[in-house]
Design a protein that fits this description.
By secondary structure, this protein is α/β, with parallel strands linked by helices. Helices cover about 25% and strands about 25% of the residues. The protein folds into two domains: about 1-10 and about 385-495, Golgi alpha-mannosidase II (Immunoglobulin-like, Sandwich), CATH 2.60.40; about 20-380, Glycosidases (TIM Barrel, Alpha-Beta Barrel), CATH 3.20.20.80. It is globular. The two termini are about 30 Å apart. The structure holds alpha-L-arabinofuranose.
Length: about 500
């Protein structure tokens, strides 16, 4: 048994918990939209075709914001294709995912779905094949109450009230050569600046996100952010980060250390942004929108040949997550919370079927993947202020991410409770954790749950949806406060007044 100690002190405040940390992402990709959130004729579908089972799971997941409609998809998207009478909407080739887009769902339906789910929509504009004018048209369509051509068209299409979308992404992953309309940092920075400037002429209060890097291993990482922010600093509020991780070559211990890359990613982007701000003599601070993050077995996807045809809603990126994936995802949530001073928004990519916490069968059941649970627990319990905690514990060496501590943790605290989120990364040993919570006054462990399994590759399926779920951890005792965290586990420990 490994030994660890950790101090929780309300003085170690990082920032308030940001509700937008618990965003996700709905892209027109594979079965995320079609047979995901939308499937007319499904037994649980409402009169608009939205699946009731997926809506219920989305609410249970605790999602706050949803980014839409892409992703790579947005860089070839004509948003006007998705409005008006369905029978007149064109079918188009989706070059990003080698599919056919039927346009049955567009911005009006998506916004209606977010209202049903109780979410904030976050919209991306196409800066791949399109530019300033199309972004302005979409903004006018969405946010102007009425009295102009585009806003009156929205009203005529059945949306009497404006959609009032506050957060807008200026394109997607424009640093990536796979992106339709891929650009250099200078080209993109100029276009993003002009788009932002014009959008602010309609509404100066919008929150605008410039594209940062698609990963910390991109050859332009760092210089991309610097150049883009030189062009856009006064015009945008946030810069995006995207990161996906997977277990490689059977190195589970290495995979469980992936949050070290996310930590490095965030710190580098924040320093780069601050350096640009300093050069410009600006007191403004740019925030991070980590608007794509997840476990994704991308290497399997990249080795699959493209289909010979252009299918509608094919099965793409349907990763089937196991316990260890959920624990790795837990370390990423902890990292986002630990950086709440600068990470103002984040989106788990994606919501349904496509590298997703929620899976569906067409015409059939919906269930929670293993990764659903750490996200849902954090969204439910992370309230109030984020507190920094630094476990004193053994560490281990990894080939990809260097030396990492066995425990990764963060705490949050509101008037009622203090909650500790902790991952034991050890693939072999339980950790006995001693908590020094004296600064909180007399407290006890009121509730503790653990997500773990004897088989770290155990998965949930439609037939066995609760194989991997958080279960009570009864190993704790008081005076001193101690609890045992099993190997490869995600743990939520709630402290209340004794
Ligand atoms: O989330 C899947 C894809 O990953 C997105 O479309 C793209 O932005 C990223 O490369």
């Amino acid at each position: 048994m490994l030994q660890a100690q950790l101090t929780i002190d309300p003085a170690h405040r990082v920032a308030p918990v940001r509700p937008r940390t618990f965003g996700t992402f709905v892209e027109h990709l594979g079965r995320c939209v079609y047979t995901g959130i939308y499937e007319p004729g499904h037994p649980t579908a409402d009169e608009e075709g939205f699946r009731g089972d997926v809506l219920a799971l989305t609410r249970e997941l605790g999602v706050t914001t949803v980014r839409y409609p892409g992703g790579n998809f947005v860089s070839g998207y004509r948003w006007e294709d998705g409005i008006g009478p369905r029978e007149r909407r064109p079918r188009r080739l989706d070059l990003a995912w080698h599919s056919t887009e039927t346009n049955e769902i567009g911005v009006d339906e998506f916004v209606r779905w977010t209202r049903l789910a109780g979410l904030e929509p976050m919209m991306a504009v196409n800066l791949g094949t399109r530019g300033v004018q199309e972004a302005l048209d979409l903004l006018e369509y969405c946010n102007i109450p009425s009295g102009t051509a585009w806003s009156d068209l929205r009203v005529a299409n059945g949306a009497k009230e404006p959609h009032n979308i506050r957060m807008w992404c200026l394109g997607n992953e424009m640093d990536g050569p796979w992106q339709i309309g891929h650009k250099t940092a200078r080209e993109y920075g100029r276009l993003a600046a002009e788009t932002a400037r014009a959008m602010r002429m309609i509404d100066p209060g919008l929150e605008l996100v410039a594209c940062g890097s698609s990963g910390s291993s991109m050859p332009t990482f760092g210089t991309w952010e610097a150049t883009v922010l030189e062009e856009t600093y006064d015009l945008v509020d946030l810069i995006s980060c995207h990161a996906y991780y997977e277990e490689k070559n059977g190195d589970l211990a290495g995979f469980l250390a992936c949050a070290a890359d996310m930590e490095h990613f965030i710190s580098t982007v924040v320093s780069t942004a601050d350096q640009v701000g300093a050069k410009l003599g600006s007191s403004k601070k740019i925030s991070v929108s980590f608007d794509e993050w997840n476990v994704w077995y991308m290497s399997r996807f990249q080795s699959a040949p493209p289909p010979p045809d252009w299918p509608v809603a094919p099965r793409l990126l349907e990763d089937h997550y196991h316990l260890a994936d959920a624990v790795a995802l837990g370390t990423l949530i902890i990292t986002l919370l630990r950086h709440s001073d600068r990470v103002a928004a984040a989106c788990l990519a994606q919501l349904v079927n496509v590298i997703a916490p929620i899976m569906t069968e067409p015409g059939g059941r919906a269930w929670r993947q293993t990764t659903f649970h750490p996200f849902a627990q954090a969204a439910r319990h992370a309230k109030g202020e984020v507190l920094r905690v630094e476990p004193v514990c053994p560490s281990y060496e990894t080939a990809e991410f260097g030396r990492v501590p066995v425990l990764h943790a963060v705490a949050t605290r509101d008037e009622a409770d203090t909650v500790l989120f902790a991952v034991n990364r050890s693939v072999s040993d339980p950790v006995e954790l001693e908590l020094d919570a004296r600064a909180l006054g007399p407290v006890r462990i009121a509730e503790a749950t653990t997500l773990a399994d004897e088989d770290v590759y155990a998965r949930n399926t439609a037939d066995d949806p609760d194989r991997v779920i958080p279960r009570p951890n009864t190993s704790h005792r008081s005076d001193p406060l101690k609890i045992v965290l099993p190997p490869v586990s995600w743990n939520v420990i709630r402290l209340a007044r004794a």
